[in-house]
Specification:
InterPro entries: AKR, AKR2D, Aldo/ket_reductase_CS, NAD(P)_OxRdtase_dom_sf, NADP_OxRdtase_dom
Pfam family, one: Aldo_ket_red
Number of strands: 10
CATH class of the largest domain: Alpha Beta
Number of helices: 12
Domain NADP-dependent oxidoreductase: 18-299
Strand content: 5-15%
Site (Lowers pKa of active site Tyr): 79
Helix content: 25-40%
Strand order of the largest sheet: 3-4-5-6-7-8-9-10
Active site: 50 (proton donor)
Length: 320
């Protein structure tokens, strides 16, 4: 089984269901990527900050060598980290990331956060993280316009087929669209029933920007980070609305949560190292929730965000 696709404004087709690489351990990453490709995943969503791109590349290379897939059948996503926003730093780091992945181009390259931090030489520390050696935040003066123009040059040089953004607000997107020569193809955001961001989703989709949801299972991804707000929030898998729909459709709670997104043309990037769940998470497009179930999901919105720098002790109130 493979995922159906959605067409980006760049003209390329992107799978609606992908395999997310956040928090995939280096020692298992290559095998997990290989298993995901074998299970039918064609979209792989990674980032410089995840620190596992070499291993991702190893998994891809093995899958191609074994004839599981051709490069052109994959849709590989990565992201520009905050410390590389200065215009002269974008292309060099993109080339390094491609070298780590063993690829000639990204299918999609995103600005990870709308936060520009002081440059850190990859030879000194990689991935750089949020803070300097002294534990302090140091900001760069790079503007979003400067960074975006450098991103556009990656398309011109065929290093990226499509470019996009992540964790941007509607206001920032409005500003970016005023000067963008190449419009962002996608917007990746935290999106689950407890954080639905309906107006942001509507605005981006109206502008022809495809939404990708991360952390589709809500607090589950953050409990292991010892985040108190996640630990104190009821698990979505156990919520009556989700469980009821799962029973009705003969699906798992995870499938229900993923279908809630894909039914509205929102791409999802779950991860699992369980073969059964890998297959189940791909099966989230060929059936539908009914309107009463969608209405019930609307009532779960708490505007509860987990992936916020402030929650990690970093004073960057970017979602304030």
């Amino acid at each position: 089984m493979t995922s159906p696709t959605t067409k980006l404004n760049s003209g390329y087709e992107m799978p609606l269901v992908g395999f997310g690489l956040w928090k995939v351990n280096n020692d298992t990453c290559a095998d997990q990527v290989y298993s995901a490709i074998k299970a039918g995943y064609r979209l792989l969503d990674g980032a410089c900050d995840y620190g596992n791109e070499k291993e991702v590349g190893q998994g891809i290379a093995r899958a191609i060598k074994d004839g599981l897939v051709k490069r052109e059948e994959l849709f590989v996503v990565s992201k520009l980290w905050n410390t590389f926003h200065d215009s002269d730093k974008v292309e060099p780091i993109a080339r390094k990331q491609l070298q780590d992945l063993g690829l000639d181009y990204f299918d999609l390259f995103l600005i990870h956060f709308p936060v520009a931090l002081k440059y850190v030489d990859p030879a000194e520390r990689y991935p750089p993280g949020w803070t300097g050696p002294d534990g302090k935040l140091e900001f760069s003066k790079a503007t979003i316009q400067e960074t975006w123009q450098a991103m556009e040059s990656l398309v011109d040089k065929k290093l990226a087929r499509s470019i996009g953004i992540s964790n941007f607000s509607a206001q920032l997107i409005m500003d970016l669209l005023r000067h963008a020569r190449i419009r962002p193809a996608t917007l990746q955001i935290e999106h689950h029933p407890y954080l639905q961001q309906q107006e942001l989703v509507k605005y981006a989709q109206n502008e022809g920007i495809v939404i990708t949801a991360y952390s589709s299972f809500g607090p589950l991804s953050f409990i292991e980070l010892n985040m108190s707000s996640a630990e104190n929030t009821p698990a979505l898998f156990d919520h009556d609305v989700v469980k009821s729909a799962a029973t009705k459709h003969g699906k798992t709670p995870a499938q229900i949560l993923l279908r809630w997104a894909t039914q509205r043309n929102i791409a999802v990037i779950p991860k699992s190292n369980n073969p059964d769940r890998l297959s189940q998470n791909l099966d989230v497009t060929g059936w539908s929730l009914d309107q009463s179930e969608l209405d019930a999901f609307n009532g779960l919105d708490l505007n509860l965000r987990f992936n916020n720098p402030v929650n990690y002790g970093l004073y960057i109130p970017m979602f304030a």
